Amino acid sequence: MKRSGRLNLPIVLGVISLLASSLILSPILNSAVKAQGQNQKSPEMSQGVQEKLDQLAQKFRGLVNSSGANLSLPQGGNLSERLQALVDSAQFKNLSQQLSQQLSQLGINGSNIQSLKQEGGGPDFAGLVQKLQNLTSSRGGGGVQ
Amino acid sequence: MIDMQNSIITAVVLVALGLVGTSSVFVNAYAQSERTQCQTNALIGYGGTIFGVANVCTNGYTINVDLATNYLPKEGWVFNAWLVDDSYEGSGYPLVMGKILDSGTLSFDEIQTNARTWTDIVVTQQPANSLSPLPSWSNSVAQTWLIPPFGQ
User: Looking at the whole model, is its pTM more than 0.80?
Assistant: First the structure.
């Protein structure tokens, strides 16, 4: 009997170790498999798209910098008024002019967006801000006043 | 003697399992220890108009994006929103946050290793039936530039 007890102990320990390691490793293995599944694309194509998008993002940031426009709206107060103030600012007008001229050099047609329709037929900052506030309040988060 | 051995081994196993459990609790506690910072940014259409607004929050590890627009994509196309990483002036890695819904809204939440690495949000317009997971960069329509703590 004693001998059988001695043999059982390593088996029990082995089973516990296996269970513990499978519990620990399963989320790691799952995320690794998921990450591989999400990246199945030819490296050359991905690289080219990333470079183009990168150039575009950098150009945009350069133009925002040189215009002096501040795209981050101050927290607090009436957000739709703050949006209107941004649009009315000389910096934003400067940025608007630069964008359509400069981005065409990168193959972006600024008139693409001008041909798009807007809900309500035109700019509606109050409606836009309300939409954002509904989203933010539904998660109980802060940031939008 | 065997009973004593069993007790010691059981105690060691329990301590080891306990350590594994508490370490993950500590990691989570650390991840939640930074203050959550939010910013509300104007998304600028490449034609020079206000495309929409985005509220972006992070504590360094979590990222929460709420985005709203009044623009409608052209028929048969959809708007996709992307986080772009250009922290080191060259990565340019885009992560799709998903399609902007017909309501003109998008909510995105994720826990990441370093959520501060993102520098921009770019909105593209893509064919609704496109199977490509890549951004249609030439059909980009709007962008905003995130301020710190992003871009770090």
Answer: no
Of A49, A86, A99, the CB nearest to B46: A99
Q: Is the ipTM reported for this complex over the cut 0.85?
A: no
The answer to whether the CB atoms of B50 and A95 lie below 8 A apart is: no
Span B71-83, pLDDT tens digits: 999 999 999 999 9
> Residue B48 is nearest to which of A57, A72, A100, comparing CB atoms?
A100
Question: Do B13 and B83 belong to one domain?
Answer: no
How many separate domains does chain B show?
2
CB contact under 8 A, B138 and A52: yes
DSSP sequence for chain B: -HHHHHHHHHHHHHHHHHHHHHHHHHHHHHHT-SPPEEEEEEEEETTSSEEEEEEEEESSSEEEEEEEE-EEPPTTEEEEEEEEE-TTSS--EEEEEEEPPTTSEEEEEEE-S-GGG--EEEEEEEETT----S--GGGEEEEEEPPTTS--
The domain that holds B105 is classified in CATH as 2.60.40.200
- Give the residue from B1, B12, B43, B55 with the most A CB atoms within 10 Å of its CB, the best one to mutate: B55
The domain locations on chain A are 1-33, 78-109
